Amino acid sequence: MNDVAEIDSHGVLVEPTTLMIQRHLPGPIERVLDYLTRSDLRRQWLAAGEMAMQVGATTELVWRNDELTDPPGERPPAADIEHRLEVRVTACDPPHRLAITWGSTGGVTFDLAPAGGRVLLTVTHHRVVDPAMRLSVSAGWHAHLDLLVARVSGVEPAPFWDAFVRIKQDYAQRQQA
Questions:
Q1: Residue 80 exposed, middle or buried by CB count within 10 Å (0-12, 13-18, 19+)
Q2: Environment class of residue 65 by beta-carbon count within 10 Å: exposed (0-12), middle (13-18) or buried (19+)?
Q3: pTM of the model as a whole
């Protein structure tokens, strides 16, 4: 029997420029936090980069999406082999909350809460004003979080780029509806 209600895997706009997306993950909560904060674990689903767990700490996140799955799938022509972004920790309350700056947007908040025998991860990406950027951010978080679920669950994930392209098309259709 399922001990928590299922959630929609798609992100939703909780404000016109704020995306919220959720996933249930196997716990404990400290293990999930490690996948958000430890470079060796985060690089398996998102981006590498050492992160100090204190407000004001900065790190450079490094994406190499071709290395996330084997095979990686077909990288879209516009996607870079590597992407770098300097972020700064703006809130830190382990193991329940981590917030970081995120480029020109209003930043990203990761909230973790017990949910029955699992952990509910809520990712909120604030102030993504540009619609094209919002589409990429929505599809990106969706694809990366699906990869996180697979990694934490010990399941071999589908090729990253193929999933990203499919999910981005799905979000594009949803945004037109």
A1: exposed
A2: buried
A3: 0.95
Contact 100, 88 (CB under 8 A): yes
Segment 105-135, tens digit of pLDDT: 999 999 999 998 899 999 999 999 999 999 9
SS3 101: coil
- As given in the structure block, the two tokens for residue 153 are 């669950």
Residues in the chain: 177
For 18-176, CATH gives 3.30.530.20
Extents of the domains making up the chain: 18-176
DSSP-derived secondary structure letter, 17: T
Alpha helices in the chain (DSSP H): 29-37, 39-42, 131-153, 160-176
Residue burial 136-173, b: 16+ Cβ < 10 Å; e: rest:
bbbbbbbbbbbbbbbbbeeeebbebbbbbbebbeebee
pLDDT tens-place string over residues 4-51: 556 789 999 999 999 999 999 999 999 999 999 999 999 999 999 999
